[in-house]
Amino acid sequence: MVDEDRKRPHAIFFPYPLQGHVIPAVHFATKLASAGFTITFVNTHFVHHQISKSGADGRGGDDIFTASRKAGLDIRYETISDGFPLGFDRSLNHDQFWEGALHVLPAHVEEFVERKVSSKEKVSVLIADTFFVWPSTVAKKYNLLYVSFWTEPALVLTIYYHLHLLRSHGHFGSQDNRTDTIDYIPGVRAVEPTDLMSYLQPSCKDTSSICHRIIDKAFDDVKRADFIIINTVRELEEETISALHQTQPTYAIGPIFPTGFIDSPVATSMWPESNCTQWLDSKPPGSVLYVSFGSYAHASKPAIHEIARGLLQSGVNFIWVVRPDIVSSDDPDPLPVGFEQKAREEGRGLVVVWCSQNKVLSHCAVGGFLTHCGWNSILESIWCGVPLLCFPLYTDQFTNRKLTVDDWKVGINLCDGDWVIRGEEVSKKIDRLMRGETAEDLRVKIKKVKKVLEDAWAAGGSSETGFRQFVEDIEVKINQKSK
Ligand code: UDX
């Protein structure tokens, strides 16, 4: 029986209930199941409902992991309430929803975990997104190992992790925050306050918002994790990861993608995907700019209008993902009047609500990506060798921009200096990204970083080794605990 347990540790996996977190969580869960874990993957009813409604789960049966189980993996799928009815608009009622995540969701989680551990399922591990505020308490109560799953760069994690240092040095949380370079975070040589995550920037005056309260609790909680898993690559963030590892066992195992990159057997999209392949097939190689601002951030209506103006002025072909809540879910059609029709009539532009981003980025017609700098988007774009035009909007995206533009030089900024956006500037920047000397230079640089990513997951590469090491280490710890 002990042998049997050693072969199949059983982990309950709670992804954060947001699109950009669910995607890497699904693929990490799949990797763990392929390595012999039993996984119980738990989405909220709402996330599950969105995926089902999008039609993407038509891939195969009863739940999103049906095809994985058919392929022999032991991944079970369950759902819990986040405390709100399905029809509640979580995007429009942002603060109310996150108050629920702080105060109500933990009770549903605990009830679920209690049910699992008191059954005969032999659960030994809790894997939870680092942004949750409850994992260490729940893990301790039910005698589980706690694995914290971080879906953003190590740099972002370590800044939150050392929030107390930012406070004590006066870079955060004081009346008049310092604006000079931050150079005292272990493993981070230098970071400018304007490159911090939106919640920590000097311009952020309300530091008692619901997001700040979640951050305070979550990044205290992570300090009690048995293991930290990061969706990044050691060679890209060597010093930061080493410094974190000295404090807690930390494993860089990115980039976490579906095995076939474009063909995932598991449905993850929360909006219906438009198929863009036929349209892309009709365009010359490298001629299309892909524009998407991810799954969560909002852009202002004036910014959307200036981008629309810049796109038309630039003459470039484009696919633009315009989510119905990109400005706000009570303004579902924020594009300038006639824009979409003009773009379609000229055969130059396609506007969609959602698409398979990996499929689009992999198409040879795509030559650039105007992005909000979500971490998944950056990793996917580098994987496809597509240079980035960076327009960060929210949360970690400012810090991710620094890595992309300043450190790795695989992208350029959409706006210089202020983040005020103008159509003429947008058009000029698109031109620099897609044609000429800068474009050539970016392509050369991104090929090199792409190789770093590829090597990391090749046999013996840092991420493959890191993943194997994590599996070995957690199995040892499970067996020590069960003695
Ligand atoms: C937020 C954070 O900013 C990000 O850093 C974190 O990793 C997740 O949460 P989000 O807006 O979700 O970001 O962006 P991103 O990380 O880029 O994730 C979006 C995901 O949705 C990507 O995997 C992308 O491929 C996918 N996507 C996006 C689609 O499949 N289709 C689309 O049309 C748009």
UniProtKB/TrEMBL annotation:
Q: Which SUPFAM superfamilies match?
A: UDP-Glycosyltransferase/glycogen phosphorylase
Top EC class for this record: transferase
One molecular function GO term is: quercetin 3-O-glucosyltransferase activity
Keyword Transferase listed? The answer is yes
Q: Which Pfam families match?
A: UDPGT
> Which PROSITE patterns has this protein been placed in?
UDPGT
Q: What's its EC?
A: 2.4.1.-
* Keyword annotations of the record: Glycosyltransferase, Transferase
User: Which CDD domains does the entry mention?
Assistant: GT1_Gtf-like
Q: Which family does it belong to?
A: Belongs to the UDP-glycosyltransferase family.
- What name does UniProt use for this protein? Glycosyltransferase
| Taxon lineage | Eukaryota, Viridiplantae, Streptophyta, Embryophyta, Tracheophyta
